[in-house]
Amino acid sequence: MNRNVISIVLGGGRGTRLFPLTYTRSKPAVPIAGKYRLVDIPISNCLNSGLNKILVLTQFNSASLNSHIKNSFHFDIFSKGFVDILAAEQNVENESWYQGTADAVRQSMKHLEKYDYDYILILSGDQLYQMDFREMLDFHIENGGDLTIATIPVNAKDATGFGILKSDDEGNITSFYEKPEYDMLDGLKSEVSDENKHNGKEFLASMGIYIFTKTILKKMFDEGAGDDFGKDIIPSSIGKYKTLSYQYEGYWTDIGTIESFYEANLDLCQDLPQFNLFSSSPIYTRARMLPPSKINGSYVSKAVFGDGCIIMADKIENSVIGNRTRINKGSTIVNSYVMGADFYQNTTEIVLNDRKGRPNMGIGKYCYIEKAILDKNCYIGDNVKIIGGKHLPDGDYETHSVQDGIVVVKKGAVLPPGTHIG
Predict the structure, then answer these.
(1) DSSP 141-202
(2) Which of 78, 164, 177, 289 lies 20 to 30 Å from 353 when distance is taken between CA atoms?
(3) What is the pLDDT of residues 108-133, one digit of tens each?
């Protein structure tokens, strides 16, 4: 079957709900699982599906994302594959930046003219899932779709936070509501599997994954359908174009908030995590050539470690430890994500800091850290205590933020010895 496809990954806007992790980077560039970036997920799904023509649209805080893509995804000279960046630009025809998801694709269409493709796969850069897009493409082609939307069954509680679709028995979408009120849900149930029905998941939520037939998307843009896929393009396509729902039954989560980001990472520590890093479909990322992690005298339970770590902690439990993390003796890390570091500190600097009682990069001696996210390159002094929980009010401070009881220590923050948070 003809699968002449070009994939477009949306690089994300300001990502305010993930602040302060998005203070210096876009959402797709946020580190996840100790060694990856969020953008690695959609790109890897494409490559594992045999789709190797990929464009990433970037705009806000894009330097970190651009650098990661440039250093991560290379194809040999005999391959027609690529992962290229399309940065937002002002030109003589349009002096404004991207005004929404659809506008980002609309403004980029002129750059797609040099490629041969029949279908456009549009993906979000901030979701966690494993999906074979070939099955969705086959469904789109076999059913003569103009637009196919990947959907996932959700319960009534979650439905109010998504774009909810109603479909008929043949998968045709008959109505769409962006984040409907709870009292609107009664008429929005769709046909789902018996298992999902038993679990109360009878509402189909848009996953933000779309397949357009090329000629139809161009026609929609010519008609001026709007700037956003969820708010404008999808509602206007129903009844006018053949708009289909492709139900996905696997694990999928939208990394939209600090709480969802925290929970998705810590779930990786479980015996059987919902997102399987050890499957036959690998997640590709930058090859850093780091040494293996070294652990000395630590009690470790349900933990995930990146590369190049030096660990002398007393205890690490239910936590993700990122690349190049250093944790000194006597420290305890519980229910936390420590992102690690972008580089190793100079040995001379470490010795000098020790003499002067200044924190080194990483976590010092006799610290206790619970329910926290430590962004990269943090300097945590000796005897620091960070204890997150619902007892802490939300707030933003010089070195850290608190959201939903989770303490987020900012990138490069310095916490002097004896600091207490919580």
Answers:
(1) HHTT-SEEEEEEEE-HHHHTTSEEEEE-TTSBEEEEEES--GGGGGGG-----HHHHHTT--
(2) 289
(3) 888 888 888 999 999 999 999 999 99
